[in-house]
Design brief:
By secondary structure, the protein is mostly helical. Helix content is 58%, strand content 7%. The protein contains four helices and two strands.
Length: 81
């Protein structure tokens, strides 16, 4: 199943106020960034932060929280290209 289909069928997906569906179970993807940027007129960093806030709000247990923290840490300490 493709990521778009997973985002549409997954109970972990959300619809933003702009009508963009984001799969919270999926990892961050540049395609999501472009879709959100185009519809909501925000920057890539703002889209990423929005994704992380929604994902954080839906965490259910310690393991999901640990994975979330590691994803954020990887973003913060990534070497700029």
């Amino acid at each position: 199943m493709k990521k778009e289909e997973a985002a549409n069928n997954n109970s972990n997906s959300i619809a933003t106020s702009g009508g963009v569906r984001v799969c919270l179970a999926c990892a961050w993807d540049e395609k999501y960034a472009q879709q959100v940027q185009g519809q909501l007129k925000i920057t890539k960093n703002q889209a990423r932060r929005m994704f992380e806030i929604h994902k954080f709000a839906t965490l259910r247990n310690e393991e999901e929280y640990k994975i979330f923290r590691l994803e954020v840490k990887q973003r913060l300490y990534a070497v700029p290209k």
